[in-house]
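Quick one: structure for this chain?
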Amino acid sequence: MPNKTKEAFDRLARIYETETDSLFNTDYERPAMMANIPENLNGFSILDAGCSAGWYSDQLLKRGAQVTGVDISPNMIEAAIRKTGGRAKMICHDLSETLPFDDASFDGIVSSLTLHYCKDWKPVLSEFSRVLKPSGWLLFSTHHPFMDWKLFECNNYFSEELLHDTWKKSGQTFDVSFYRKPLEKIVTEASRFFSIDELIEPKPAESLYEKHPANYEYLTNNPHFIMIRATARS
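Got it. Here's what it folds into:
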């Protein structure tokens, strides 16, 4: 993750923890992700990779899982600890480095909107594969490459590039950078270590139409995120 982005997320932690989430999260990405996670996680050990302020960790706990969360931002980890009330194990760690877990430690991994901050996916996905039990599952979401290509007016869809964005939240400005990969690269990287079960281009939840019809219309016709559900090779 670029240093400025890490610093931005340290500053964003309190906002993520205390303020209303973006509709693109609450009525688009999250419903689609949760629909692809088993309802009953009793007895399952799940890694929340890139846990941010702990929303997914909390939901996984509610479904009965034993949860471990990892995030590069110490402020996000503190927010996640508060969100989960100490019921989950939270570790500040860079996903591009070797994970501090034994082989075959987890039944599943959830990674929400995190991988696009990593330049090289190979070591990250290799570690995901290592710490998963045989036939364990991975579910991750990331930016849809078409969206970034279109919004940032990239010259070459097939190139991998570092993009820069400015977010405005709570009267503050945050400089955030992330990496764009073409769809072919996303699928190829994932399939090196996993058997891909499904590639998902989510549609917005109907609840978004009631809250913001314009966003609903936009997301119904323009891909914004992409999700991959995969199984570790035994």
